[in-house]
Amino acid sequence: MLLAIDVGNTNTVVGVFVGEDLVDSWRVRTDPQATADELVLLYRGLLGDYRITGVSICSTVPAALRELRRMVVRAFSDIPAVIVEPGTRTGVPILIDNPKEAGADRIMNTLAAHHLYGGPAIVVDFGTSTNLDVVSVRGEFVGGALAPGIEIALDALASRAAQLRKVELTAPRSVIGKSTVEALQSGMIYGVAGQVDGLVRRIRTELGAHATAIATGGLASLVIKESETLDHHEPHLTLIGLRLVFEKNL
Q: Which residues bind ATP (predicted)?
């Protein structure tokens, strides 16, 4: 059984694979202040009777990764572990100006997207930020676009505008909101869908080909029904990438 851990800025997604099958998964809050001892207790509680035989990790939070390394040494010292970082064999050529700038999660998404759907492809990851990652026909990471995530944008509005407040993230009755709450919901859901559709169309034009667009991330389900360009929804794309990179490094 493979334990896959994707540490994001807001949430950490944890999955257990038996072969190619994801048999269980959890989403927990990322706490950069958590110690290795606290993480040992957390993962022992989540895993229960699962007998882990390998660990694969990627992280966008350096402080959290440091303690996670210590946790792996304590709890999984006798099994193989892969931590995705510069120098790790991923099989993904990184064709940007500074390859070290590419987040490990974006590389895992690229690897999984090409494995599942081929290329060219566009991965739209709805998380703390909204990432659009472009995958070539050959499975190369060729760049992309970054925008504020839905919750980040909503928090910014609530903190900077006295008359506005945080609202439940759900689609309103219509695009024309009949209340402040509905107007905010419209701007967040339909606005982000329009933003993503515009970027996907521009990327396809620049590529000169119809690239498959894959939605992933914790907030993807809010937008995908309203989008005109997203072709597939794969909520566990990063975990699949972690499984693939573990197999490459065995």
A: 6-13, 128
Report the SS3 class of residue 182: helix
For the chain, what is the mean pLDDT? 90
Measure the CA–CA gap between 66 and 120, rounded to whole angstroms. 35
Q: Options 3.40.50.720, 3.30.420.40, 3.40.980.10, 3.40.50.2300; which CATH number does 2-83 get?
A: 3.30.420.40
Residue with tokens 């970054």: 146
- Residue 54 in marked binding region: no
Looking from the CA of 163 toward its CB, the CA atoms found within 13 Å total: 4
Residue 77: φ, ψ to 5° = -70, -25
Find tokens 């006798």 and name the residue: 78
Active site residue 21: no
| C-alpha to C-alpha distance for 172 and 174, rounded to whole angstroms | 5
Q: Enter the pTM of the model.
A: 0.89
Q: What is the pLDDT of residues 101-142, one digit of tens each?
A: 888 999 999 999 999 999 899 999 998 889 999 999 999 999
104 assigned to a ligand binding site: yes
Question: Homologous superfamily of 99-109+117-235 in CATH?
Answer: ATPase, nucleotide binding domain (3.30.420.40)
180 is in an annotated binding site: yes
Q: How far apart are CA 155 and CA 29, in angstroms?
A: 17
